[in-house]
């Protein structure tokens, strides 16, 4: 009875107790100790009435064909699907045989675990809500294919042009003998710019004009993806007969009613704390990195020093990853705790608030270190002679020559790959398996003749050992963070879509496997859309435009190069760019106690060293002041951000406006169905007139009951069958 | 019969010819020659079926009260409405007497021409579409009240602080003896900065820190207005029983079908031309202004010269206004012509395309001169010694000292006031009156004993002399352009909302008068929303954020003042700002033939004159090069644009997110109605069970007809009465 009530939702009032007599309850004897199963049998008329409540639709008898408008896009997509055909295991769609296969269930067959057609089957078995998740995941993965293709082309362009890149050529040139200022106080010494040759060459891979194009492309890609999803959702709504379906108002949650009764609605005022903790931890990581670097620099062993950069970067990135993974779990709990404190009224609002909080926390968790590297590393360094110090002893980190883009890349790839491989795939499959094992062992301890029983267990008893279904939130969350990696910093890491694509191809299969074999079959739920996730996607896509604009203009050297080429270069080429970006420093101006202990490290006495900044030389009227070039470059950088942001936003709006939300064939289909309905109605009307003509009027009441009788025949068309008088639910 | 068909829409097929017998046609003898009237009488059952098609709803018998949640906002609004009470003529709402009054019609009573309650009555008389227009206009006007209040406060703040403004004090100070470079070649001479005192003081009225606050306020105001309109629309949809209503698919237009038959779909490829013409004309206006100015400067009469600035500005603004008014009509015709060329498929798409084209053309027509003054005047001037010339003889215009903001103000106020007064009110009322007169005179020429007939004319015959209804497009268009004036350049003209408010108070009355007394009663049309106009509003609000950001940072002197105060000022005050913004020019560097003819105009020999720009002085290494200060100010300006745009957009999104789209009482009401429906349904169900119990089953067919019979009783609740089987239209 409890199950039945929960299925019916809020529509059952006290009057509905009359229906109990319709349900037949069988209590079956379970072979598992402590667990009982109740089998419920609902007769046809009870099911019919529930179908009316839920506005389920019945197919029409009359079938009609709608002409397919085959545009250019569809031709391409059919070509793509032909090319990708080997990737899709052969599944005969819409065949009852297949559906039977899947609903036979918990079978370990891999036949159905395909990218794009799984959602058709999953809807039949899991209900529309999970069906929509797989449909969304399928579309996302499909859309990642062109994105990763273009990303790879951009990366290859970087590889191909690395030898033509004048700034890295200048840095690597053997005749280049620019002496750089020490990177840390006292223990570090002067160094030759040519030692940064490798880094400079590597950063060209990710910092070339093609990345600008790619980040515009990805912003439009995101807009296109949203639009395509809207259309796909519309199509699914139509195909799954959800066009008239509206979300029911939820019950108030039991906890909410309890708390209202207690009149102790404690408000959430502690979320500031949590965000504080996040920043504290992130700051801790920054401190670690500064100290590690200083310590490694301290050892004057030259071989160590060569490996310093790479070691620190990589270990720091890995530590970051571990911290992110641990905090991810912590934040999940924190978000849940905060939402429980808030006591939202309905289950739906509870879920939405929880999702929103979790997303914000996990998003900042995943992206804070990356944002730090992209926008704050190497900005607040100060200058030789007056460096900025944290806690009076730690100098702020500097980036290696060639911008912070390289480090951003390393951090991004390690976080992204690590998060996906470890958290998503290992955890997602490993943990349920482990839990299943524990559950199995536990029940074994209580039972004696386990093996005998095992053979006799009913299917619902074996299923009971599976992990219960915990909702789609973790699955969506993971994909949202991935979407963030794909769009937010794509200007600095064009391979992100490729990694995401590879992950998702595995992910779909693992998810499907998990849902079918590792979890109890979830209660089917209907849903018209993916709810709050769509808004989150939209938000991420919006933020991505701004972040990409800033990455291109501030993290990469794109703007300074442009400014040099068109404003300062004597011959209109990039020759002399490296020299132009380096300022002069007179060694005698070092603060006392800060100068290097090994001034003759390079073998000669250094009087003037160089550092990467736009400042006046020591011999100018205003030594070490910020120079005119700095302001020029800054102005151009900011102008670029404005132009980029507005142009991309405008283009996204145009994409949004050009692609209609409802696919043309679906709107045509709906229109034809309407006409069909009117057609039928008119026929009925005519029939009525004939009857009226043949038989003179016998009173209004007769007429009324007849017309109602007619309607019960009319009401068959597919788009129109919510049976009488329940249609406005 | 034709009228009937057009009312029924697309639902009538060939089968419906059977219905003709239901309609009774009376051909009445008209007293106007050449005009015939047909009176159609449709019996009750035909009307009922049409009501089913149109999903009209019937009120429930059961009434219930929904508790009003009186929040803080509602308290304020009730306070506001109390304060404004004297403004509203006393109309007894929802009283049948009043409705009868209005539907008695074409009466010249002014009782109903009220701001906020007219739409309630207008819906009953004109239909939902026109009702929505008046509702929208009412809300817009209401929302303008706080905006204009704040605008006036900002303006008064400017007035109050004008004497404390250090830059204008410095300019006006008698000891100030800065010699400025000539404003034009040869005929102009050097001038004292102190003569610009008046302009400098005036521009402070519109260029003070409060304007920055005001433009942020107005951006949020626009977001708030959108949200409120969404809510109001939702409420009206509920109150006018449109919740289940969906726009019908239109017929293809007759012109479309004709053209498709001809297979000569000529595409619109000439719109570029038209935009070209716009720019050509605007450019012509600019040229006129340059030449007028030069001519006026040429006359060496000192009194003329003093009046030069104001005369030119005002005459140019008036000429601009006339050009705008003429072009507005031209553009309306051009847009219609272009849309006809495009041959859109349905009437709805025709209307939408026409509106979009007309809006774009009229918008650019109204705002091009203003955009020119705000962003291009005085930017491309060059510098003394190498001015920029158009056509080799006309020097580009400079702004008076104190920024172009003052001129922008004059242009804005003249365009706005002029457009509103002349075009909207004079034309709107005058032209229909004129046309009515012409129509009347024409029909008089053909008739003889007019006076006798006049007395005997039926009401529908007198109505025939009125102007036919031409759609709501001009009314909405006018308001959209006004919304543009209110939001786009509000940073430079805080009084715009006040002017708009004053105009609208008249406008509503004039519109209502026009609709009731000057136009034939339009065919009532249902509409759920204001359609494309909402998107246009949204677009204008988006553009407004960016334009305001640019006005504040580039047109006003806000940013240079800030930069001076925090970066260059020796004592942290504004003292010395004027001197800082002026560069030095050595008179001997004038090009040959360009130097002034009257070098001793000021009574002494000038060697160094000053001009408004950030350039290096003649004695620096790089004379007349753009200076570091210029780049600093530019960078800060651009940074301000980025910060302003993103902060305001974020705040707008938050406003959008915080205010729910559906008012809480409406959603509660809908929820309660659902419960009521379930309640009724359950009672019916129970009744059925009782009958079943008392009488053993006599077969499925009996059961079916009975349940249908029950439903015809159930189907009364207000939210659910589209009678059976038509509900999916």
UniProtKB/TrEMBL annotation, chains A, B:
Keyword Transmembrane carried by entry: yes
Compositional bias annotation for Polar residues: 705-714
Pfam families: Anoct_dimer, Anoctamin
Annotated compartments: Cell membrane; Membrane
InterPro entries: Anoct_dimer (IPR032394), Anoctamin (IPR007632), Anoctamin_TM (IPR049452)
Domain Anoctamin transmembrane: 123-673
Region listing for Disordered, in residue ranges: 693-729
A cellular-component GO term for this protein: plasma membrane
Keyword Cell membrane: yes
Alphabetically ordered keywords of this record: Cell membrane, Glycoprotein, Membrane, Transmembrane, Transmembrane helix
TM annotation in the entry: 132-157, 210-226, 275-296, 316-338, 359-378, 479-502
Domain Anoctamin dimerisation, chain residue ranges per copy: 34-114
Mode of membrane association: Multi-pass membrane protein
GO terms of molecular function: intracellularly calcium-gated chloride channel activity; protein dimerization activity
Family: Belongs to the anoctamin family.
Protein's UniProt name: Anoctamin
Biological source species: Mastacembelus armatus (zig-zag eel)
